[in-house]
Fold this protein.
Amino acid sequence: MNAVQRFIRSRVLLLTAAILIVAMCLSVFIQSQSQAALNRTVDENSRGLYDILVQTKSANSKDGGALIQPDIANGQGGISFQQLENIRGLNGTSVAAPISLVSRVTQNLETPRLDAMDYLGYNAGLAGGATAGDPTGTDATKWPAPESVLSAQPKKYRLTATAVSSDGVSQQTLFQTSAEGTLGKGQVVEQQTAGGKSIRIAGPAGETGIKFPAPAGGSEHNLFNLSVALPMAPQVTESVVAVDPTAERALLGSAGDFLAPLQKAPPADTRNAGAIGRYFEQLFAKSPTQQELEQGPDFLGVKLKYWAPLMTQYQQAKRSGQITDASQAIPLIVRQGTSLDLKYSVKIQEIDDSGKVVNDVGTVSRSLDKDYLPFVSKSPFALEWPGSTDHSQLLGNTGNFGQGLYQPAQWSTDFAAAPKYQDGEAAANGAVGKSAMPGDWVTVNKLPEKSAFGVIVDQAQRKPVDERSYRENLSTGSKPATPLPIVYGTFDPAAIQKAAGDVNKLPLGGYDPAPMTLEKDAAGNATAANTLKPSLSATGLVSQSAGAITDYYGLAAARGYDSNANVIDAVRVRASAPGNWKQAQPEVDKLAAQIRDMGLEATVVAGSAREDANIFVPGYSKDDAGKESPLGTVAQSWVRQDAADAVSGSLTSTNITLLFLTLCGATLLTGASTVSYIRQRRSEAGILRAMGWTQKRVRRWVLEEFGIGAGILAVAGIALSLLSWNLATVIVSASVLLIYFAAAFFAAQQLRHRDVVDQEPQHDERLIAVDSPLTFAYRQLVTNRFNSVALAVAVGVFGAAVGALIALLIDIPRAAGASALSGLASATVALPSLILGVCGVLVGLVLTLVTGRFELRAKREQLATLKAMGWNPDMLGQVRFFENALVGTAALVLGVLGALGLGLLLAPYAALWAALAGLLAVLCWIPIATKVVK
């Protein structure tokens, strides 16, 4: 009988080899699929809108793997326009888009008002001229009948105006002011004058109106409403950034189409504010058409839809002497909506002469929301009396005819720069803690010293609020003249955020939102993860998307530069190299090196990913005594440089280690089975020795059988290596083959023939009396020590391998890192890794069960004898259980310590879980083996 026939006859060798080959094929296939999914996930999510972030060199420059904050438009400047052109001139540059922080802009909103419906019906003297020639106006015959929420007889009311702001954690009442007076239904009054009839609207007899303290106005009747001027709303501050609109559109693709109007802005030498203002005055003096008024007049190829605020602010600034010959127009694309949480409400109560409330009319409120437009919104706090209906649309579409904002915006460079942070401790997954650096306190919610009519304002009616600034001042040129903003269009921050991507999101610089979420309070306790809101002053740590985008001529006008200055904060560079981040990496690295040769800092962000930074915020608020308190820890989306390399490397290593543990653990168990099985061949070896065979020839005779198994394993390993074309598969296959050879040679050494001695002398005091299933099981294990030890070692190896596999699976999220790419990639490989781990556990379990069957025939004969002696099935079952329990007890030490050791080596943060998994694996083996091996 040749070696092949003997190998096939030795069913245990054939079975263990078959199990090992199936495990190899299945494991390599799963690992290959997992690796392919990992590579695909990383490649698809690791190249954002640009590849290189160029900034001026600083002392805080870091090597690869740094965490980059989203405020790249930080106001530091340092890059010249000549350097920008040099970057654009490099062969590998596709797009080079500069960006800079321009200024903070504070805007006075129009005085809030409460409109109570007091519609007087059609009157030719009042409405006829307004609707003449307007196709959108309602015909006089179709005007509805008069209606009003007010009574003909004036009633006394108390109005309580309240403004509340929130930072996302707590609310703060900015002011609460009340005013009382009588209000009633208005009436049309006609009077005969020297020139004819005079028509006006007046209140009923006895009406006093309601007047809040200055600078608020009073109340007045018109054709549609009774309007009550409310206390002034707090000032709202926005930031402005500058871009090159052409380059920015190229960077954003179709998502940057909102910048098209800015590309048509006039050149620098034709932006004189006075000249542009006079041009529009002359334009509207010529009676523009209805279409021109609705769509906006044409200004150098751009329809200026928002011309009303431009005209109003120009005329107001001209009257106050703010517009000078040096004033320049600044074209703007403004943000749609706001994240600022500012709510204005009015409580309306009817009272008697003693001040007692006789009727609670209701409370109306309004917040700045998605409809708010910086530099544009005329009446964000126009509130309506409960039950009111707006009839003003009867006059036609008046949306673009409003007077617009009353006061020009105030441009400032104070407290505008990006926040600064200090590094803290790093977490187990690589996440870096930060600490914000607080600056000065900024006072908001102040009232002007005088009203628009020159009345001294009582400052005691409103308490100013101090907000902590985390920003520094920007540098400027000469003192800038008052600029004149021209709104060219709007942009939606949410659309830009979507275009910037998710996992591979890179900061655009100021106009893409980077919200903060409170994770822990000042005491370190977890919170409900509230999204923080920006402050009124826009100088706090939390910021929203910039209120407006301008070009670099606009920056020069706002910051007082009259010549080329190094004002570019950052340049986002996209390389012309195609493909994913790995394919483009050589060309990107080359381009970055060329940029560094210009004396600039070039950070390669291709292969980066979004990552939440945990930021501790000290000195956030203070009480009346001046004691400062921290906010707690907030999370903000930053960018982890080289995240793709880190994630790919760590998870690839985990994949390979799982494969190695699965196969090498299975191979070790195969070896244990082989060594245990070979002892059954000792009788054959004795016969061959008696026939004159030498010990060397006997060992060679057995090794030939193992050689067949090794050959099959080698063929399987070579085939798998060629199919996967992976070095890891080659190494693991070679390791499996090496362990199998070692087990074979060790097994062959056990074939030395020894004289068989009587194992059960009749009068040996060391014999164990068999008086229970436990003692019989113990005697069997002691009598067959080699097989018992081999089985215990196999079970211990099984427990250690299970513990190591579980530890690796648990450690995957930590090993992958803290970036968004880490989470996505971990989720991609989680299921294949779990399947691979389960396969390893099942293969190990099957091989330990195979090992336990080697003395099964002898054990069955012994159990039959015990049954004949009167032992019942329960006692026989207890024998099997106790044998396995004793083996398991011996294997526990090896399993737990082995799992703990492998856990400390492979996944230190999950080492205790590894030990627990090893313990449970051995404990679970005991009942399984009892049930299966009968």
About this structure: The two ends are 32 Å apart (CA to CA).
